[in-house]
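Re: that backbone. Tokens:
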């Protein structure tokens, strides 16, 4: 009889801890969605107050890896509307180079803060809001689905 009581105690503890994890998923998912909306709002404000400017690859920074290979990071030169030069180093490097010297791309920069340059493509502008919204939706679906389907499991 004592073994049966221990067995049911363990089952009850497992159920309670599982419910707790699903609640944590819901809370984390809601926090990720709120964070995504905040970042999206900041991004939209940045795009609204930014200037669009064309830049070109002026050189490559080389990175030597431990295995003897070399990767190349494009460095762009931009000229603002008031004639200031901006140097933008791309966030990724590739081997062989993914860009060519002189190749052009569009950029956004804030007139008040010239150092806030972003490449003008969908993922570069909205990347963090996309990632956080995707994570939040997944966690909310997983956690909320448990509570929604739990009534059918009993």
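Recovered sequence:
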């Amino acid at each position: 009889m004592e073994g049966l009581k221990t067995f049911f105690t363990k089952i009850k503890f497992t159920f309670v801890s599982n419910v707790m994890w699903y609640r944590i998923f819901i809370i984390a998912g809601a926090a990720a969605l709120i964070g995504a909306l905040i970042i999206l709002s900041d991004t939209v404000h940045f795009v609204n107050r930014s200037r669009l400017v064309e830049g070109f690859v002026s050189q490559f920074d080389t990175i030597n890896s431990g295995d003897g290979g070399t990767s190349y990071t494009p460095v762009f030169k931009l000229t603002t509307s008031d004639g200031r030069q901006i140097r933008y180093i791309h966030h990724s490097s590739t081997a062989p180079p993914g860009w060519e010297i002189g190749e052009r791309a569009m950029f956004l920069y804030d007139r008040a803060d010239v150092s806030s340059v972003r490449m003008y493509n969908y993922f570069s502008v909205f990347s963090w809001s996309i990632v956080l919204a995707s994570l939040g939706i997944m966690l909310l679906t997983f956690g909320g689905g448990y509570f929604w389907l739990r009534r059918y499991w009993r």
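The chain has a mean pLDDT of 87. Helices lie at 2-49, 122-153.
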